[in-house]
Automatic annotation (TrEMBL):
Protein name, entry field: Endoribonuclease Nob1
A GO term for molecular function: hydrolase activity
Gene3D superfamilies: 5'-nuclease (3.40.50.1010)
Claim: Nuclease is one of the keywords in the record: yes
Function: Toxic component of a type II toxin-antitoxin (TA) system. Processes pre-16S-rRNA at its 3' end (the D-site) to yield the mature 3' end.
Length: 159
């Protein structure tokens, strides 16, 4: 079975409403998007016809998603909903439909399939590092350079 896993941006872009394919999301994402009034009846119809399935990832997949996002440095940019989508993709070996850069970066670093919606998708995959523009040192985390006190910036180290 081909698992199409939707994040919130896929719903806002209308992906499940324009397709007859089955889609999956998590309850966290559904709770985030169910307020869409103009499409509320459409969401109900998707659920009633079983074209939209709400499925929770297992705890092992969630741990892997969290670990991978910390490895790439994307963890601070990801919501619980984002983590749940990545975890569900790990568990089902499906493909994520999203334009979110942080989700895409973690997914691609894990070798998962990701399909962009309204963009060309990300070109560069890698790991984020914090660096000090003052003394030009790299740091694994933080907001301020421990050596000189300058505010740290982030850059992507491409794979």
């Amino acid at each position: 079975m081909d698992f199409r896993i939707l994040d919130a941006s896929a719903f806002y872009a209308g992906v499940p409403f324009r397709s007859s394919d089955d889609c999956f999301t998590t309850s966290l994402v559904y709770d985030e998007i169910k307020h869409i009034k103009k499409n509320h009846d459409a969401l109900g119809t998707l659920l009633e016809t079983n074209r939209l399935k709400i499925r929770e990832p297992d705890s092992e997949s969630t741990k892997k998603a969290i670990h991978a996002s910390k490895e790439t440095g994307d963890f601070p940019q990801l919501s619980k909903q984002d983590i749940s989508i990545i975890a569900l993709c790990i568990e089902t070996n499906g493909h994520i439909i999203s334009d979110d850069f942080a989700i895409s970066n973690v997914a691609k670093n894990l070798g998962l399939k990701i399909l962009p919606i309204m963009t060309k998708g990300i070109k560069d995959v890698g790991k984020w590092v914090h660096y000090c523009p003052g003394c030009r040192t790299n740091h694994s985390s933080g907001t301020e350079c421990p050596a000189c006190g300058t505010l740290l910036k982030r850059k992507l180290l491409k794979d």
